[in-house]
Automatic annotation (TrEMBL):
Its EC number is 4.1.2.4. This is Deoxyribose-phosphate aldolase. One of its GO terms (cellular component) is cytoplasm. It comes from Conyzicola lurida. One of its GO terms (biological process) is carbohydrate catabolic process.
Amino acid sequence: MTIAGIIDHTLLKPEATSEDVAALVAEAVELGVYSVCVSPNMLPLSIPAGSDLKVAVVCGFPSGKHTTAVKTAEAAESIALGADEVDMVIDVGAAKAGRFDLVEADIASVRSVIPAPKVLKVIIESAALTDDEIVGASLAAVAAGADFVKTSTGFHPTGGATVAAVALMSATVAGRAGVKASGGIRSYETARAMIEVGATRLGVSGSRQVLAEEAGADAATPVEGAY
């Protein structure tokens, strides 16, 4: 089964135009990916009739240093404008300080304006955290009702997703939430490695290339994973 069904086809460049986003949507439909992930000011999106393509939007992006009130208002507006999923950034500094109570409260406030079956993903910026901090942030996300924990914004200088971080996050949430690997996934080999250690969603900007590589991969070695 193709990994397209777990890909969030992503365009978050500050210079992206409405025309770029329209092209992203068209490509997403063509490729059969799960969703597109865009900046909040691009909403609402025009999704072709008959398509089941989901719309994800970022919140508190990319620093996570917005106040909880601002993040909550941003998430509420995005839901009102048609978003199916919200990918929020935690206050990474709070996690570094061990204040996981503040991290949880921040997430819980955003969760309160995202009614089920709408989805909340929580970006913990794993490359900037120690293993203990990754565990603490992931547990805070689960406690606050997040549907997914997500590795990275893709904008932090420390880097994006790693196999080790995804494995640790997966072990920590233990099926109570999904795990989204995002940031630096530019090949099918990397995507496959993330899935094999527990990723249940992938954030990818170069989806066409990754899926082309998948199509050329040896069909005799299926991926063990959630897709």
